[in-house]
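Narrative of accomplishments. A recurring question from our advisory board has been how the design workflow behaves on a single, concrete structure rather than in aggregate. To address it, we present the structure tokens for one chain from the evaluation set, followed by the sequence designed for it. No filtering or post-editing was applied between the two.
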């Protein structure tokens, strides 16, 4: 008995073929359910007409954004009152962008739900959109902008996130990635739990994939931001000015108050991409009818 028990090649220490096959089958079933669930989320974007895979319908997006808005605002200095001329300018420029672009067309489920807020946070450089329409810019970022056109570029970019339903897309991709990572962990595991490390690695890979998708979304939103600010009558070259402001001010200050740099591509890269987009739009030069707008009130 002792000889059998101490033999490392004993069948007691070898995973049985049936158990191994069962784990593989379970893993495949989990992966299949995840894929079917993801493909079942196919939807046509009511604003852009693009086919997407999203976790929420527009009503759910709007409800989620409204629910999250107070909590987000509270964490970043609170919403400044409409009587503040800076907050009034943010609301006015944002409304102008919506009214003059596809974001405000009647078939857009978000048209009546866009709201633009200036947050009191004087340190955190950021602007962000919640699903369904709430859009925020911090006082720290606002104070670095020079004119209405630059503000329109920032807000137009965030409107682009909303109309392209990026948050709902990320939720769907995250759910699929989570299911696939679980499947990998189950399929690679053994009786001693040695698949745990593989599952962790799969989860990490999923996070990297999501980050890559996020950066693609930022480029897409830059494209829409340029289009929206042009439709509102603003000079798109001022978006290059925004990138220059972020680039110059962020030198040596990655992280901390620079939360905008955690999800957005490097400002230098975005600057080059935006300049190329403008050149493609206007090979003969930007029309003089597009302006910087008024200087921002302080």
């Amino acid at each position: 008995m002792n000889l059998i028990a101490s033999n490392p090649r004993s069948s007691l220490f070898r995973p049985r073929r049936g158990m191994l096959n069962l784990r593989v089958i379970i893993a495949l079933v989990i992966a299949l359910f995840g894929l079917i669930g993801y493909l079942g989320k196919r939807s046509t974007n009511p604003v852009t007409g693009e086919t997407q895979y999203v976790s929420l319908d527009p009503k759910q997006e709007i409800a989620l954004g409204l629910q999250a808005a107070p909590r987000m605002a509270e964490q970043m200095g609170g919403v400044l009152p409409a009587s503040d001329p800076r907050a009034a300018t943010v609301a006015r420029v944002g409304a102008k962008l919506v009214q003059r672009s596809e974001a405000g067309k009647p078939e857009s489920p978000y048209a009546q739900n866009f709201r633009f807020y200036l947050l009191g946070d004087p340190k955190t450089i950021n602007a962000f959109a919640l699903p369904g329409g709430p859009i925020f810019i911090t006082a720290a970022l606002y104070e670095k902008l020079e004119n209405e056109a630059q503000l329109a570029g920032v807000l137009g970019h965030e409107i682009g996130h909303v109309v392209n339903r990026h948050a709902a897309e990320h939720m769907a991709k995250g759910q699929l990635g989570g299911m696939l990572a679980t499947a990998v962990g189950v399929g690679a595991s053994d009786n001693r739990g040695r698949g745990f490390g593989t599952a962790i690695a799969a989860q990490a890979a999923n996070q990297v994939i999501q980050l890559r998708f996020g950066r693609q979304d930022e480029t897409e939103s830059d494209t829409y931001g340029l289009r929206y600010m042009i439709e509102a009558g603003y000079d798109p070259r001022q978006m290059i000015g925004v990138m220059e402001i972020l680039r110059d001010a962020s030198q040596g200050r990655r992280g901390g108050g620079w939360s905008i740099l955690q999800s957005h591509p490097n400002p230098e890269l975005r600057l080059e991409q935006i300049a190329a987009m403008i050149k493609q739009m206007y090979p003969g030069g930007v029309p003089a009818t597009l302006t910087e707008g008024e200087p921002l009130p302080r």
